[in-house]
Amino acid sequence: APLLELRDVSFTYPDGTRVLDRVSLAVPRGARTALVGPSGAGKSTLLSLVERFSDVTGGAVLVDGVDVRELPRAALRARLGYVEQEAPVLAGTLRENLVLAAPDAGDDELAAVLAAVGLTGVATRSPAGLDAPVGEGGVLLSGGERQRLAISRSLLARPELLLLDEPTASLDARNERALQDALDAVAERTTLLVVAHRLSTVVGSDQIVVLDGGRVVGVGTHAELLETT
Ligand code: ADP
Ligand code: ADP
């Protein structure tokens, strides 16, 4: 079975808004899948069903072939990593920002996840290194660096599937490129599902699923989708 599968998933909010209409897709283990579509297409709602913040109103979400409604939420979330659109930086040091989900991680492991997202330099910006406070009076980070710090924080928990919601939405061109490079490296270690509203931001994906008005309207590689649109 694929790592994640949606079978004929429909979802209607309690107020009656129907947001997903018989959506089927498969996220193979080890691959990088993108979910693309305009604002309002239902992308965030779909992610919330995977994490079980809500439950489907039709169809099923399966992880490794098992309906997520049969898995304890804690067990499910231990297998998933999620990085929101404007990932927060926490009060505290770089180390505290990283080890949230992995309190026992050693310095080598911290260095490795920082390197994986191109952030090796942040730990040497201050003489205090990883123990420098983040923010005012310590290590200042750009929006893109904060996003990548959040990704390295998730990596430390070794998720089987990492969900990224619009990781480049608020970034300038330089930070977007750095984030793309980071995703290339992260894709070597874990299965990725990346949500975006523009096709250009998901060029490196193995598979792109296009969602519009709550329906899947296209599936293919970047090149295949460009040919048909
Ligand atoms: P996307 O992430 O693709 O922009 P969303 O999943 O955020 O799309 O939203 C899809 C649709 O669901 C939108 O029309 C939005 O207004 C609606 N929606 C989102 N949250 C709720 C809610 N809590 N109750 C009712 N409708 C909602
Ligand atoms: P919000 O906009 O949600 O109020 P802020 O942007 O003010 O949040 O900051 C949230 C956290 O991020 C705070 O702990 C703050 O110290 C830290 N922070 C803010 N700006 C930066 C920055 N440029 N680099 C690193 N940390 C920052």
Automatic annotation (TrEMBL):
The portion of the full protein included here is: 326 to 554 of 567
Which cellular compartments is it found in?
A: Cell membrane
Output the superkingdom of the source species. Answer: Bacteria
Q: Where is the ABC transporter domain?
A: 4-229
In the record, the note on similarity to other proteins reads: Belongs to the ABC transporter superfamily. Lipid exporter (TC 3.A.1.106) family.
Protein name, entry field: ABC transporter ATP-binding protein
Organism (species): Pseudokineococcus marinus
